[in-house]
Amino acid sequence: MTPDDEKFLRRAIELAAAARAGGNPPFGSLLVGPDGDVLAEERNTSLTDADITAHPELKLARWAARELAPAIAAATVMYTSCQPCGMCAGAIERSGLGRVVFALSNDQLAALKPPPAPSSFRQDGPALLDEARVPVEGYYT
C-alpha cells in the first residue's frame, strides 16, 4: 500500500460518507488513470435513484467500458470504500480495469450489518441445453 493508495482510499471513504449523508448506502469509489489523475468519482445512489444497481463500482466500470480504450482501462486503479459485491466484481472484470484497492472487505462489512435475510427467489435449471447452446456456441472462441 503506497501513500497514493492511502490518499485515494481516503477519498473513497469521503465519497461513502457523502452517499450516506445524501440518504444512500455508504459506498464510494473513484477511478485513477495510469498517470495518477482521478478520471471519475461515484457514490452509491441506489435509494435516491430508485435503482438497485446504482453502486459506485458498477457505475465506474460502465463508464470505463464506454469511455476508455482497453489499454488505458487495464492501467487504471479503482479505489473503493468496500470490496466490490459480486455484481460489481463481474462488471469490473468485463470492463477490463486493471486493479481494485478497497478499504473494508466483504467479511468486515458483514460484521457491521445485520444478518442477511435468506434468499427468497427460486432458481430452476439448467434446462433445454440443446436449444440454449445454439446462440452461444462459438461466440467465445
Automatic annotation (TrEMBL):
Record-linked Pfam families: dCMP_cyt_deam_1 (PF00383)
PROSITE patterns reported for this sequence: CYT_DCMP_DEAMINASES_2
An example molecular function term from Gene Ontology annotations: catalytic activity
Family matches, as SUPFAM superfamilies: Cytidine deaminase-like
InterPro entries registered for this protein in UniProt: CMP_dCMP_dom, Cytidine_deaminase-like
Domain CMP/dCMP-type deaminase: 3-136
Transmembrane segments: none
Organism superkingdom: Bacteria
Protein's name in the database: tRNA(Arg) A34 adenosine deaminase TadA
